[in-house]
Amino acid sequence: MEKYASVKGEQVNPGYDGSLDEPPHYEETSFSGTFREVRHSVVSVFGHDTLDRVPNINFYRNPGSVSGHRAIRPSLQELHNVFQNGGLVPETVDEPAGSDGIPADMESVTPEEQQAGFVKFGWIKGVLVRCMLNIWGVMLFIRLSWVFGQAGIGLGIVVICLSLVVTSVTGLSMSAICTNGVVRGGGAYYLISRSLGPEFGGSIGLIFAFANAVAVAMYVVGFAETLVDLLKQSDAIMVDEINDIRIIGCITLVLLLGISLAGMEWEAKAQIFLLIILLVAIVNFFIGTVIPATKDKKSKGFFNYQASIFAENFVPDFRDGETFFSVFAIFFPAATGILAGANISGDLKDPQAAIPKGTLLAIFITGVTYLAVAICVASTVVRDATGNVNDTITYHVICNGSAACQLGYNFSSCATETCKYGLMNNFQVMTMVSGFGPLITAGTFSATLSSALASLVSAPKVFQALCKDNIYKALHFFAKGHGKNNEPFRGYVLTFLIAVAFILIGDLNVIAPIISNFFLASYALINFSCFHASYAKSPGWRPAYKYYNMWLSLLGAVLCCAVMFVINWWAALLTYAIEMFLYIYVTVKKPDVNWGSSTQAVTFINAVNNALTLSSVDDHIKNFRPQCIVLTGAPRTRPALLDIAHSFTKGYGLCLTCQIFVGPRIEMLQEMNEAMEWNQTWLNEKKRKAFYAAAASSNFREGAETLLQASGLGRLKPNTLVIGFKRNWRTADVTELQNYVGVLHDAFDFEYGVVMLRLSQGLDISHIIQAEEEMQRLALEQQALEVEEVPQERGKWFFRSRKSKQILTQGSVNSPQSSPATKVNQREVEASTQFQKKQGKGTIDVWWLFDDGGLTLLIPYILTTRKKWGECKLRIFIAGQAERIEQDKAEMQALLAQFRIKYINITVIPDEYSQLLSLADFPSWKMFEDMIEPFRLHEGAKEFASADTQKKEHSWKITDAELEMLEEKTCLQIRLNELLQENSRAANLIIVSMPIARKGTISDHLYMAWLDILTKNLPPTMLIRGNHKSVLTFYS
Asked: Measuring CA to CA, how many Å separate 105 from each of 31, 37, 64?
């Protein structure tokens, strides 16, 4: 059977993927069931019964899938352990959602009755039509003739083709991205965020949604201006031109909002209607070019297709300070709109197929249309015309070589005075050329309204997807959808308000280049996403669309960035500034999402390459840094040990917090696997720059040995063991103590440096954590009971519930304060967090008694460079001889000066240890004797045979011979403790050279007694012993 891991009371099924796309984040929920329901049956595969399943798409679905049930394949433990258990083969039962610890709304598919009401579009109605309507804008009917008048046919074609290159490359990149997995709602935001991560996606998503909202105002104002021009011609102005534009704009916006709120189906019908009008208008223009020109049209510059006009208009004629780039900047926004279909990706039947097909075909059709219309109008209309039917050529007038002159009209006056007609002067050229002028006006209305409607739908959809991901928590209110299509009504209202604001007060001439740059920024990131994903070479990058190239995508990104500056340099800088600000904001907030972005893949590649590069370089003393294995157990149970190690490794070296699971291997492996992710998450949440590692073993020493040998990667390999002092060594089991001291021996054998921390209150607070969790559990149960009582007598029980809750809270906080045990616990908690606080002015006393390569001096120096320890100064204590104290001090001063390590004092401790030998009645010696008494063999007071038997049976005990042989070293530890108490009692931290226990010479209990008596009754103390290889140098 599959047993779900239990972490802090929550059931976690390892079969489920936590990095979901839809919904992207779920709150964790506790469930009472621990075991998934199974039944003992088998499935026949290849002629025999087996628990293994054949590959099936349902095994690969995410929870919350709307396209089918998520099936759970047999776990590896079920397949691996079942025959060992000697039982029948279990099979997962197809059970209702929620029965296996997953909330029903996550695992269940959408109800059939709701599925029946979904409105999903195909690639034509959903993508092709929308993109064509958005690309065919006002430019087609009003400004295209002016563009070709300025740039000429030759450069005009270059302008259109360059725009098509940018949009086509972006379309290819988008096609690759959206065919690399299931596409949900959110359009450009979804594609960018899932490719580059929430930082890029969150920043571009917000400005892209805002750009669409403001674009609604721009298109509506364009419609209103055209309508007001008609009213002006009819002398039907209501108030004045500006206020008429505002009134008509607001009324139009209300009508468009009504269509949008009616649902996507109505909006799609409106788009089809507007497309028909637009197509009729375009056809009407082409028909008009072949209808013979009247005298009135000829006077306005229209002469049907003429080779002379084509030749004259082929070359550029830039006027009024215009250049190729300024003309390009005016035209390029007309080529945008390629994301109109992608923006409603959540409403498409098959986004993976529809977006590439519809978008690329729309780019092709609209590009051909722009080229055809532009070439036709530039081949039939001259640049300048007076509009006077009497400006014909008389017999005595000599032609100046112009096409109009050759066709019988004299427009030479336009060289000295401004004319109203021609490509350069009349924005209504297409209306004049067309077969029926009002149809062009209708086409203009259709182009503006369709673009406005598309933007009005796109902005809320993109914004809703952004809010659903909860990247900006303050905007989560807008994530809620309504109705059968999950319509973002709140987003519609917000978009409406933004558009109205810009219609009423916005200077659209200033806003327009910013909006164009916002769209271009999203295009650039789409191209860069495709390049980045291809560059990362992640195995998950397998787009079904193969007609793309990573370098072409990079070129597209560069072109988009260049076009941003061509359009408007200050708008480009403003766009980059806004995007950078949002990127930093999202990075700092660190949203709890994981989408497997290419940024993660590239980070991994860079890490591997850097590690390989580092491995090819030999170590150097100048680059040495402590890289620590910290035996914390579960990291939160020994916070002081983690904090002190983190203090000198953060930003300097590697820190591995390690836990050893001691017990039967199978049970411990399961427990270890359950703890891995949770503990690493805890470290990340506490902002500890450390990794969590664990080992399962039958005893503590074997597990530690495994970690010491196997941890690390190349040069990123630990070189220092950080361990806590075993406070209970006198009451611990003999084997347990032998394993503990054995770890120290192993560390020295593997040439590790060793750091041992001792706090007088102890390091382990696991018992306090367990007590707090139990109190919280009881409090939650009590609150649940009180909530159940509220409905019985609402008024009476309401106040009673609040009162009892207060009593419960006070009881859990106040009542233990009177308990002596709780006071002890509070002192332990305060001691365990003391290294998390800023250390005040004080000293770090370094007792550098033995040269171990410099680690005893390097670690305290690193601590003084930390912000929390910055006010602490180093005091150095060294051993010396009484007759040469000043000389020893001068030598140490010279050495520290060479090492460039600052200190405030050097104290030389003279050789006074012999005094203690004749003072066996000193309290400290008596304390030591009492400490080791339970572990002494006392073989000298027994008969030889009895003593020999005792030695064999209790080989771990301290013999009289051993104690006598090591009496001088024992006295050294006792005397050092006295000196430490005399000189360093007020220090913030004491660092002492660790005595080494020679293997086979010193018993484990005697060695622990040395360490105990050396560090007893002192402030926080670290015993340090390097591996006797230099870690300090004075060479440059």
From this structure: 14, 19, 7
Phi, psi torsion values for 7, nearest 5 degrees: -120, 115
Q: Please, what's the largest Cα pairwise distance for the chain?
A: 150
Percent of the chain with pLDDT over 90: 27
The predicted model scores a pTM of 0.72
pLDDT of 816 > 70? The answer is no
Percent of the chain with pLDDT over 70: 84
Answer whether 1002's CB lies under 8 Å from 962's CB: yes
Is the Cα dihedral 486, 491, 496, 502 positive or negative? negative
Q: Looking at 197-240, list the stretches that DSSP marks H as alpha helix, in order from N- to C-terminal side.
A: 198-233
DSSP strand pairing (5-7 vs 10-12): antiparallel
- Is 365:127 a contact under the CB 8 Å cutoff? no
DSSP codes of every residue in 987-1025: -SEEEEEPPP--TTTS-HHHHHHHHHHHHTT-SSEEEEE
Within 10 angstroms of residue 234's Cβ, the number of other Cβ atoms is: 8
884-891 CB contacts, 8 Å cutoff, 24+ apart = 885/910
How many whole angstroms separate alpha carbon 381 and alpha carbon 309? 7
Q: Is 733 exposed, middle or buried (0-12, 13-18, 19+ CB in 10 A)?
A: exposed
What residues contact residue 710 under an 8 Å CB cut-off, 6+ apart? none
Determine the Cα–Cα distance for residues 25 and 814; give it in Å rounded to an integer: 38
The Cα 460–Cα 210 span in angstroms is 9
Rounded-to-integer distance, Cα 225 and Cα 508, Å: 12
Backbone angles phi, psi at 875, to 5 degrees: -120, 130
Q: What phi and psi values does residue 763 have, to the nearest 5 degrees?
A: -105, -30
CA-CA distance, 213 to 256, in Å (whole number)?
13
Residues 484-491: what's their mean pLDDT?
82
The answer to whether the beta carbons of residues 140 and 368 sit under 8 Å apart is: no
The single residue listed with the structure tokens 């006598």 is 964
Query: How far is 620 from 120, CA to CA, in rounded Å?
Result: 64
- List the single range of 16-25, 214-223, 445-454 with lowest mean pLDDT: 16-25
**Tokens read off for 441:** 């006006």
Alpha-carbon distance of 331 to 147, in angstroms, equals: 7
Tell me how far apart the alpha carbons of residues 884 and 873 are, in angstroms, rounded to a whole number. Answer: 26
**CA–CA gap between residue 877 and residue 535 (Å, rounded):** 56
Mapping DSSP to helix (H, G, I), strand (E, B) and coil, where does residue 845 land? Answer: strand
Q: Could you give the angle at the alpha carbon of 235 between the alpha carbons of 232 and 237, nearest 5°?
A: 65
Pairing of strands 842-847, 989-993: parallel
DSSP 293: P
Q: Is 126 exposed, middle or buried (0-12, 13-18, 19+ CB in 10 A)?
A: buried
**Spatial separation of the C-alpha atoms in residues 464 and 492, rounded to whole Å:** 10
What is the crossing angle of helices 508-536 and 144-178, to 10°? 30
Q: Are 344 and 264 in contact (CB under 8 A)?
A: yes
Please give the full DSSP string across 449-465, using - where no structure is assigned. Answer: HHHHHHHHHHHHHHHHH
CA distances from 798 to 180, 787, 790, 802, 804 (A): 54, 9, 6, 7, 10
Backbone angles phi, psi at 843, to 5 degrees: -130, 155
Sign of the Cα torsion 915, 917, 921, 926 reads positive
Structure token digits, residue 17: 């993927």
Judged by DSSP in three states, 182 sits in coil
Q: Of 971, 951, 972, 953, whose CA–CA distance to 961 is shortest?
A: 951
CA atoms within 13 A on the CB side of 151: 25
Instruction: Return the ∠ at Cα 261 (arms to 255 and 265), rounded to 5°.
Output: 100
**C-beta separation of 96 from 69 below 8 A:** no
Q: Rounded to whole angstroms, what are the CA distances from 934 to 184, 916, 1006?
A: 71, 23, 11
pLDDT-derived band at 111, boundaries 50, 70, 90: very low
Residue type, 346: G
